[in-house]
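2024-03-11 09:14:02 INFO receiving multi-entity request
2024-03-11 09:14:02 INFO entity count = two
2024-03-11 09:14:03 INFO echoing inputs for audit
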Amino acid sequence: MGAERLASHVGRLGPLPKGGHSLVELLVRTGLTGRGGAAFPVGLKWRAVAAASRASAVVIVNGAEGEPHSKKDRLLMSSRPHLILDGAFLGAAAVHAKEIVLYIGEGHHAAMRSMAEAVAERTAGERRLIRIVLAPARYVAGESSATVHLVDAGIATPTTTPPPSHQRGVAGAATLVQNVETLAHVALIARTGAATDTVLVTVAGAVRTPGVLEVDSGTPVGEAVRLAGGPSEPARALLLGGYFGRWVEAADAWSLPINPQALRAMGLSLGCGVLGVLPVSQCPVCEVAGIMRYLASESSAQCGPCFFGLRALADACTRIAERGTDAGDLQRLHRWSAEVQGRGACKHPDGAVMFLQSALKTFGGDFAHHPAHLRRSA
Amino acid sequence: MSKRFELAVDRIKCDGRGLCAEILPEMIRLDSWGYPIIAPGPIPEHLMGLAQRAVEDCPVLAIALRRAEAQKQKA
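2024-03-11 09:21:47 INFO inference complete, emitting structure
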């Protein structure tokens, strides 16, 4: 599927409607939340940026998509670039922005090409607003203060807040950082005046045809897994929402509704929309240890509790995975995750320890009785 | 409204020298890697002097006093 050209985009949906203040209030009413992972209410964010803007705000269109299994943002950029640009122009008008930065993951080549070609089809006035910036392929590169830091100084690491980006972002200007899927929803809401009722998810792991799906909001997780070809072998558990998400036993997972608000009410989060299926044949402890090592290595190494804490947690997980359960390590996992929580400049350490705590809860028995994996020659 | 203050650590500046925990152990302890864990909530009146010293003596200026009610607005 190639990128949709401007003529067919306008033919399908009609021209870009006027936005402005009434759109902000419409977004507040529809309750749209961000689809990058944090699920922040979009209308409230736009209101805050508009209030701090002084006609010099910046809009960052966040297509970094650093989440390892997520593919939905790059698929959207490479197939519906004008929908995203519409959302960006509506955002720029609503918050009185003087610049739009397309912030695209450096490895997402098709997405980059598609977005650049779409920009070239726009009017001179629109093109003048836009700049494209490459985001490094790091997990934290999409964090909102990190996007601002990269645009400002070429360094994609989070910075200390407050002040938050929506008050003081790029070059000190109020900055609206918004995920690409979120902006596509805005472009549709502005046209219909009503809340959108679909969600993009990436089904990953032990399914027959992993990939991106657009499903109706509220679709059961099991239905999305079935649409992805069904489990390729018996499933043990689901990781809902990517590496900052939560583990759910397969038996409880299939009936969960794919709806950000409904999941939040259950203490879960759709996060960035990754549904990862773990098969019974795979050891959850070893899987969790691998993800913890990844998250530790993706710390931007700025804050001590994150840099040292995540490393220590990943090491303890790995010891249990390789040498078998040790009561001391198990205790340390619980104590250290509580210690690390809430003690970084950004939410990277919090996301990692909440992932781990959810694993310790869901796979408590596995962690308590993990055998040593003796190395054997093949 | 009385002015109540709390301690805020800039986690990026902080490199775990640990002076603050020596000056104000009543409110600051160190984690397993030597970085400060601050007791939540406003600083009691009788500890304000020590809290100010912890702020001033931090070698990397990573700790600050801020109005306790500002925190509630942020959340």
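2024-03-11 09:21:48 INFO post-check: Chain A has a mean pLDDT of 94.
2024-03-11 09:21:48 INFO post-check: The beta strands of chain A are 57-63, 97-105, 130-135, 175-179, 198-205, 211-216, 235-240, 246-249, 274-279.
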